[in-house]
Write a structure and sequence with these properties.
The protein is mainly α. Helices cover about 60% and strands about 5% of the residues. It contains 8 helices and 2 strands. The longest helix has about 40 residues, at about 35-70.
Length: about 240
């Protein structure tokens, strides 16, 4: 006989509090603390993405736990059917844990929600009104979290007919393109020769705002899924 104890602790709630802490303490910085302000805004961007990932993992696992609770309330008298159900839920949980560990960012979570959904056409995370902003947030988070330097190249030569050709790519470029499109910035890194224009209060506040909107979108999806999957709805399965 073996006894196993599983201890789980989420951290997204601390990241949510830390977001508020950073916003509050940023107000205390004087105008001369430009480097400190950039650092706080970078921390906000990284933190918001981590908060989304943690909340997604939590809600997905809560949805599976809800499914398990509802199914356990069925009156299954046959021992082997009960055991089969328990084995199925355990294997599904193991599979979800493995899938979630391989996911970076938000891509991939829609397929998991679809797997667990009881609805014919489940709502999708990517139906969020500013899905582009969420994907850009994670692309920017990835380069920031690894401390990647910002590099661009401008060339003028005979093969460019005397015109300047710019070479700037990666997460920073994708963020800059998005922010230009949203009219949140008006200049480019390659002209400014400084990347701090994408780490202003306005930019980090934008990402904080869409993060909170996205979490509300996620909560609505999970709530709908739980309401549809009840003991009365599945008695016939």
């Amino acid at each position: 006989m073996a006894i196993q104890e599983i201890i789980i602790n989420t951290i997204w709630q601390y990241q949510l509090k830390h977001m508020d802490y950073l916003l509050c303490n940023r107000k205390l910085l004087s105008k001369g603390n430009s480097n400190e302000r950039v650092g706080v805004n970078i921390s906000l961007i990284i933190n918001t993405a981590c908060y989304i990932e943690g909340k997604l993992e939590y809600e997905i696992k809560e949805l599976l736990a809800h499914r398990n609770t509802v199914l356990n309330s069925l009156d299954i008298k046959d021992f082997y059917k009960r055991r089969t159900h328990a084995m199925f839920i355990n294997k599904l949980k193991e599979d979800l844990d493995n899938r979630i560990e391989r996911i970076t960012g938000v891509d991939g979570f829609d397929s998991i929600i679809e797997l667990l959904s009881y609805m014919r056409t489940p709502s999708k995370l990517r139906s969020f009104k500013n899905w582009e902003g969420i994907t850009v947030l994670f692309q920017l988070r990835n380069v920031l979290a690894h401390g990647r330097q910002v590099t661009a190249q401008r060339t003028s030569a005979w093969w460019t007919n005397g015109c300047w050709e710019d070479d700037f790519c990666g997460g920073y470029k994708k963020a800059e393109d998005y922010l230009l499109k949203k009219k949140l910035i008006t200049s480019k890194f390659i002209d400014r020769k400084n990347i701090d224009h994408i780490f202003t209060n306005k930019i980090s506040d934008h990402f904080v705002a869409i993060t909170k909107q996205f979490i509300r979108h996620l909560n609505r999806i999970i709530s709908q899924e739980k309401k549809k999957f009840t003991i009365n709805n599945i008695k016939g399965i």
